[in-house]
Amino acid sequence: MTVPATAGNLGSGFDSLGLALGLADEIEVRAVASSQIELEIEGEGAETLPRDESHLVVRALRAALDHVNASQTGLAIRAVNRIPHGRGLGSSAAAVVAGISAARGLIAEPEALSAEVALEIATQFEGHPDNAAPAIYGGATVAWMGESGAKAATLPMAEGIEAAVLIPGSVLPTEQARSVLPAMVPHRDAAFNLGRAALLVAALGGQPELLFEGTEDRLHQTYRAEVMPAAMAMLTHLRAQGLAAVVSGAGPSVLVLGSDLASHGLASGMPQWARGIGGENWRAVHTVERVPGATAHRL
What we know:
The protein is an alpha+beta fold. The chain has 8 helices and 10 strands. It is 29% helix and 24% strand.
């Protein structure tokens, strides 16, 4: 199966809007007769991730099987990780969604682990649904917590809207990025973001000329500047050129939305112009609209 990287927040849509990106982990899972865990990891985290029951894919898979009262089993897992860790690209959400999707492929009635159920289980791991939703549904999503739990809806996305993500060499734990957010914000800032988030939905749906204003934010990015100076330097540089740039999730990667982004030097690779901005060398990954969510065809 493949599970995409995701960008949460999208600037104004703090803890609610999300987007699947054209960068994905690839995971193969087989049930084995023994009770052992065989875990092969390539790529990101190959040197540091656990190879036992504590691995996030295994934990999520076990939780999903328990949710539907299915029997546990030994597992042989091969993971090719392409989503950078600690960069605000939803690597943990991808691992959780991969585990749940794998469980779906192992049970007799996969509909018991529907997308709605998968979102609820993933949110129990993640604490919020804005990264899990696009990883499950693909494309652009809005997610929220209702009275009965996590909910999500897909958003229309106009033809021609592209995304590029600039990834720095440094990492930033999500817990640290959240620790600098204030407990309360001014009413005017909350109202500002509410309007901009609604504007962003309209921009994504067919009015891309509104992307720049729709991605303006007063709730989280400026508060995080002290813990991600490189990201804020890149954000300032890009927005000064009129590009709709935002911090991806909790950072420190930076997401750009727009059209013909390659003409702005945002094709995939190591852009020369980005060297030294914020003291970082940046890697760009360029994608297009409607990236699919998790697919389990390899199970």
